Amino acid sequence: MDSIEYTEDYLQRYWSIFNTKYFNNILHKVKIQWSGRMKNWGLTFCEYSYKTRNIITTRIVLNRKAIRTFKRFRMVLVHEMVHQWVYQTFKIKDIDNVIHSRN
Length: 103
Hints:
The protein is an alpha+beta fold. It contains three helices and three strands, in the order H-E-E-E-H-H. Strands 1-3-2 form a three-stranded mixed sheet. Helix 1 crosses helix 2.
C-alpha cells in the first residue's frame, strides 16, 4: 500500500474504500481526478442546483506533484471527502473558513 498509482481508477477505488470506512457509504459518487498544475494539495468543487436547491459536489481534484506517499494521499483525499460530506449534509457551500479555521 506504499506506492501510489496516478490513475482515476485508483482514486475511485480508494474513494469507495474511504467512503465505506469513514462515512458509512453516505457520500454520493463524484468524479475524482489528478492534476499536475495545482498549488493546493486538493480541491473539492461544488455548485448550487437551483432545481433541487441543494449543493452538489461535482468533483475532487488532487495534486499529483505534491502527493507522494500513501499516508499523504489518504490524508488529503479524506480531507476533501469531509468537504464533500459538509456540502452534502448541511447544504452549505461557503464553509471553507469554518473547516480550515485555526481558532
